[in-house]
Write a structure and sequence with these properties.
Number of strands: 0
Radius of gyration: 25 Å
Oligomer: single chain
Order of helices and strands: HHHHHH
Distance between the termini: 56 Å
Largest sheet: none
């Protein structure tokens, strides 16, 4: 879990300053980004950030095998539907194969 740079005391100070000065000025005072101030003072913004984070975790799990499986499934579906993507993948495969086949070979002049 990522720890906040702002302590509870600082957050309380920020809440007191909320009505007096604007968010960018508060951010300068506490040496943090404006979005950090917005996160701590705006409940809707906080919920949006948390929801985005949850989506990212579900979409790309920490487990590498699950993530690889997700990527394979995505590429397979896209390969079947999107002709431009299919051509790019074929071109990439030809170039990659060419690079692999050149490994370990000596230059003709040497």
């Amino acid at each position: 879990m990522i720890r906040s740079r702002l302590t509870k005391d600082k957050i309380k100070e920020i809440e007191l300053l909320k009505g007096e000065i604007i968010y960018p000025e508060i951010a300068k005072l506490f040496n943090v980004h404006v979005s950090t101030i917005n996160y701590h003072l705006n409940e809707k913004h906080r919920e949006r950030v948390k929801a985005r984070s949850r989506k990212r975790i579900l979409k790309f799990p920490c487990n590498k095998k699950k993530r690889r499986e997700y990527q394979r499934r995505y590429q397979k579906e896209r390969y079947e539907k999107d002709l431009e993507f299919r051509e790019r993948m074929k071109k990439f495969a030809r170039e990659y194969k060419r690079k692999i086949s050149m490994r370990g070979r000596k230059c003709p002049g040497k």
